[in-house]
Amino acid sequence: YQRKNSDGKKAGEEGSQQRERGKKAPIKDQKESENKEKKTNKKAKEGENKQKKDRRNSTTSASSNSSDEESLSEEELAMLMEQVEQKKKLISTMRNKPWRMVKKLSVLREAQAFVEKFEGALGKGKGKKFYAYKMMMAKKWVKFKRDFDNFKTQCIPWEMKIKEVESHFGSSVASYFIFLRWMYGMNLVLFGLIFGLVIIPEVLMGMPYGSMPRKTVPRAEQATAMDFSVLWDFEGYIKYSALFYGYYNNQRTIGWLKYRLPMAYFMVGISVFGYSLMVVIRSMARNANESTADGDDDNFIFSWKMFTSWDYLIGNPETADNKFASITTSFKESIVDEQESNKDENIHLRRFLRVLANVLIICCLCGSGYLIYFVVKRSQTFSKMQNVGWYERNEVEIVMSLLGMFCPPLFETIAALENYHPRIGLKWQLGRIFALFLGNLYTFLLALMDDVNEKLAEEDVVKNVTHWTLLGHHNSSTGNSSTATPPPLDPADVPRGPCWETTVGIEFVRLTVSDILVTYITILVGDFIRACFVRFVNYCWCWDLEAGFPSYAEFDISGNVLGLIFNQGMIWMGSFYAPGLVGINVLRLLTSMYFQCWAVMSSNVPHERVFKASKSNNFYMGLLLLILFLSLLPVAYTIMSLPPSFDCGPFSGKKRMYEVIQETIELDFPLFVAKIFSYVANPGLIIPAILLMVLAIYYLNAVAEAYQRANAELKKKMQMQREEEKNKRNNKASTNPMLQDLEDLLTPSTKSESHPKQAEDEKRESPNRTSPAGKGGKAAAPDGSPMTAGRRAAFTLPPHVFVTQPPALGVRAPYPGQPRPRGHPPGPVPGRGRGNISPL
């Protein structure tokens, strides 16, 4: 019965609950519909409010709004400007962020899009469009400058060829081609000066060919003037052309422009040396500034190369291969430098071998100088003979070219005894080859000066013969009647003088052409044919030709550099006597760039001891400056001391060549200018000026040395400061564990002293609270007690450190650095109590 009643009650309760749910359901539906209507009304109101705001914003451009709205717009613009500046700063410093490349690219795109979108909105009212236009023009100007810089880089001649050579052969081989390109540019300017101011005016406004004896081939030479053998020796029609000194007329003015050709010839000859001196010194100063601006990279060399060598702008696979090869080569260079710096050998044996090598090289230099002097003297006897063979005519050029070809490899073989670092060995090799070439050149000049003196003595005889020939022709043509005009004498029949200036110019042109031919033949035979033989015959030979003899040839840096410098010295000396020599040298340098780049990439291999060139090419420039000074001396001697030829050249008829300046000043300038020049040329002013320049040079040199010493001291101080900081960090890292052990040692002792007071305070404040059960159990101090506050101030513990009870009697605390005594873990163990956790 009770179960039935309980079941009935449950059924009644469930029915009542269902009725209540049925009543609540329509009420919930009504409420939901009401909420939806309210939301739609709110959305409609918000839309109306937005439209009103848009209308208000549109009307503010025509009418003024309230002050609150104006201040809000200014704040927004200020915030927007700040954000734009932050994005710009982020774009400029994106390379320095230690992010992944994907993150860098995404952040960079977002920042650029933000700047492009909101940068034009920083203006106000009418200035908004102007500001947007100004920003757009600033962007376009930056883009134009970047494109123009890229265009200038693309316009640098042979840049990609040199980069390719550098990637495979190192910076030392590439420095030769950079030097070759620089010399090509300098010679191009010199050719423009000579061709534009001397050759073109003479050809256009001067007397034509055949109008006077100096521009006409003599009658005895006309039959063979066009033979190849004659032209190859620069005789015949080439000798009487604008290529050489003797072709130019000595009239003060020529043409309708009244162009002063003798004065132009003299000033251009001086300007060639002046411009070359200025360019060389400027290049040396720029290289020195670049080398000092780079700083000291002796620290962390391999780390810098490993993590900063790659160029992420490379998109060409071939360029990537070249860059990979370049990085590999730079690692080889640095490894060699490191090995050479750590080398330690027997110093006495090394000194003996170096002295022996220098003695052998001095003997070679003396022998080559004597051989050249002997050959030049014998060529003078051959020149007086007739029916001389081709070898006798070109013996001087052949011997000098052979010495320049075989002596550098001999020097390199002897230099193997010295065992220098490759870079230092290269400088010694350059100096020795430079001494060889310079000795050969000056020996040639001394022997040539003997020939010039003989020709000057011969000129007096020829001058008298020419005078009597012209006088006899005048008397024979007029006869007894003195009023008749004599017929002109054919220029080809007039006796000629030796014209020593043209003879000197021909010798320099021959040397230049023979040097070009020997260089190209050496490359073809010694590099290309040798490489083909090793490549194709190696399969059927008895030993490995690539690893043994003859193997592939290495690029001779020292020989090629000194060949360029020696050739340029001949150009400087010979350009005054052969104006067309500079044009020949321009063609030579142009073809050498392509020919030698092809030979290097196809026939040569990198050096076994790869090394890098110095940061500047000042060593090459120093040698070039020295050869420039030594080339100026013979030209200055001939201008100031030797009389010019009487029947050829622009200075004929004068006692000295420099008299053309005096003549121009006296005839074409006012009188006071002539007085000023006479005062300036007084030795009483020149000698003090030279002394003042020497003192100024000494002072500037002393100041430069002082700056260098100060710079070295600053570098030492910076190095010491960095080492001190390093030592501080290392000491701090090593002392941290000891300090921790010391804190752990001192903490229990302080707690043991303060423990009784803490227990008494706890008993007074809360008598119901007792310590945990145990013999050695003691209560911990509350967090807010002054004892714990003082202990925290005295000993600041690291976070989450368990502070335990002091050890029992007879147990010593561990010293710093000793292991802790192992006991029972903290907790409800007899004799130990659980410590409280420090709130620190």
Overview in brief:
The protein has helices spanning 2-60, 67-92, 101-118, 127-155, 159-169, 171-205, 228-232, 261-293, 301-308, 317-341, 347-383, 390-393, 395-415, 422-478, 500-537, 557-574, 581-603, 618-641, 659-668, 671-680, 683-765, 786-794, and strands spanning 553-554, 604-605.
Q: Indicate the low-confidence ranges by residue numbers.
A: 1-6, 55-72, 754-760, 762-840
What proportion of the residues form beta strands (DSSP E)? under 5%
Helix content: 55-70%
Average of the residue pLDDT scores: 74
Class by SSE composition: mainly alpha
State Rg. Answer: 48 Å
Strand order of the largest sheet: 1-2
Membrane topology: Multi-pass membrane protein
Subcellular location: Membrane
Domain TMC: 499-614
Family: Belongs to the TMC family.
What does this structure look like?
Belongs to the TMC family. By secondary structure, this protein is an all-alpha fold. It is 69% helix and 0% strand. It contains 22 helices and 2 strands. Helix 11 (347-383) packs antiparallel against helix 13 (395-415), helix 15 (500-537) packs antiparallel against helix 16 and helix 15 (500-537) packs parallel to helix 17 (581-603).
Keywords:
single chain; 840 residues; mainly alpha; 2 strands; globular; disordered N terminus; TMC; mechanosensitive monoatomic ion channel activity; voltage-gated calcium channel activity
Topology of this protein?
Layout lengths: L1 H59 L6 H26 L8 H18 L8 H29 L3 H11 L1 H35 L22 H5 L28 H33 L7 H8 L8 H25 L5 H37 L6 H4 L1 H21 L6 H57 L21 H38 L15 E2 L2 H18 L6 H23 E2 L12 H24 L17 H10 L2 H10 L2 H83 L20 H9 L46
Parallel strand pairs: 1-2
Helix pairs in contact: 2-3, 5-6, 5-10, 6-8, 6-16, 6-17, 8-18, 11-13, 11-14, 13-14, 13-15, 14-16, 14-18, 15-16, 15-17, 16-18
